[in-house]
Amino acid sequence: MAAPGAEEDVFGRYRSPLVSRYASPEMGFNFSERRKFGTWRRLWLYLAQAEKSLGLPITNEQIQEMEANLDNIDFKMAAEEEKRLRHDVMAHVHTFAHCCPKAAAIIHLGATSCYVGDNTDLIVLRDGFNLLLPKLATVISRLADFAEQYADLPTLGFTHYQPAQLTTVGKRCCLWIQDLCMDLRNLERARDDLRFRGVKGTTGTQASFLQLFEGDHDKVEELDRLVTVKAGFKRAYLVTGQTYSRKVDVEVLSVLASLGASIHKICTDIRLLANLKEMEEPFETDQIGSSAMPYKRNPMRSERCCSLARHLMTLVLNPLHTASVQWFERTLDDSANRRVCLAEAFLTADIILSTLQNISEGFVVYPKVIERRIRQELPFMATENIIMAMVKAGGNRQDCHEKIRILSQQAAAVVKQEGGDNDLIARIRADPYFSPIQGQLESLLEPTSFTGRASQQVARFLKEEARPMLTPYQSKMGVKMELAL
Hints:
Blueprint: H1 17-22, H2 25-30, H3 33-53, H4 60-68, H5 75-85, H6 88-99, H7 113-149, E1 154-159, E2 162-168, H8 169-193, H9 207-212, H10 217-230, H11 247-276, E3 279-280, H12 300-315, H13 317-324, H14 335-360, E4 364-365, H15 367-381, H16 383-392, H17 397-417, H18 424-430, H19 441-444, H20 454-469
Antiparallel strand pairs: 1-2, 3-4
Family: Belongs to the lyase 1 family. Adenylosuccinate lyase subfamily.
EC number: 4.3.2.2
Domain Adenylosuccinate lyase C-terminal: 378-462
């Protein structure tokens, strides 16, 4: 097959499925070329405005010309310029100057490439967090509603994926919510810790701006402050090299990787519960689970989350390596890598949050299946309670223990060797030794008596910790999430 020509449609060339298949339009736009280069032009405008306000000979006409062309980007011209110059920033300086001939002489005045490059990255990272946080809050809210609804429903707990003491469906969900609340705090902290690079010059010394303002240090500091405020930041880094420290990228992707780990754990639990037929993710009327096996109801949304979460968790290795090999004030081997990993981390986090929201809004619980599994395992768990009841009725603890040990082994043989149901309670009923507590057996086997304080823990956790964290996001929480694919 011949390679497609330049005019080939979009289906004739590779497109990242993160954007073409999964990500939200708003996150896709945040990392788009139009957003990036439009922000570059705004940063050049902020710089010119601040320089003018501090006395440099820049006219109102030049400022107005720049303002009128912020989004008038000739991408074809910029691509041709970059091919000729082999420099992306200068290509866009020339392209901007072409539509702003009066302002051409003062565009990028005193700045280095990282003035637009790094500052734009910081703006986009900040705005990426601002897109993710309400989505994460929405997921927590949906799960909190689910936990509250099923706070009292007993279910078999698992440790080592082996039957353990009972818990409740709502309490198990609170374990998921607690991890996501930690992620919410981590994302907020990472966003709030971001600062602006500001106007620092080629190696971070601000030498070019000090020359522009004829040695006036106060004006250089004010220039830095003005541009920082115009870009929507409260603070700028006081020291930088040519770039802001690449440790910042490590911190950003670390919290996103941690979010990925949380979602992977949650969706793995959901997949295991689907296998047990206790709970399922939503399954649509016309959805096909398998092309070969029409009865299948595969947990494909949870599987998608796990698949993409693994990708998200691995991305943090990139900024770790990049930060470790930045020589002195900077090396350019960070650039191509960062173009990929920063965008992909936010796009992937966006996708798995949207998918998990969709899952959490359509959970299907099967109480009868849960009850049946409890009945299979509860007789063994109830043996300690039965021993205590016999002792209270005048029995000997050691004799009772031996009786139950023998009966338990017989019942286990029926389950494991014959494939039958657990008949331990029937064996206890049939043994005259246990006649003093025959009337208590039903109450001793009541599942809710084995869940401890699970229900109370759910109520307190949701009231005191989970729901208060959602208050800042109430007006931004999304509507019900429908997935295109």
